[in-house]
Amino acid sequence: MTHVVEKKPPVPLRERSVEQLARLLLKTKKDQAKAAVARWAAIARHEHFVAREREILAALAYAAEGS
User: Fold this and answer.
1) Backbone angles phi, psi at 5, to 5 degrees
2) pLDDT grade, residue 64 (50/70/90)?
């Protein structure tokens, strides 16, 4: 008899902590990191970001520069 492990759905990026997002971004390749920052910047231009989302964007940009 096999044991079936249910995979939990991934936590949406919006619900992750800034530190988790920065660590996730640091694991990506530099081009992918820059693309992620560009996507977030595009969203920021079209939506009114709350303070936490601005903090996430800043962390992503910082992490992309360091990767």
Assistant:
1) -105, 120
2) low
Report if residue 12 sits inside a domain: no
* 38 inside domain: yes
pLDDT in tens, 35-48: 777 777 676 666 56
Confirm whether 57 is domain-assigned. Answer: yes
What pTM value is reported for the model? 0.37
Using an 8 Å Cβ cutoff, are 12 and 56 in contact?
no
**Boundaries of domain holding 34:** 29-67
Cβ burial of 33 (10 Å; 0-12, 13-18, 19+) is buried
Distance CA 13, CA 42 (A): 16
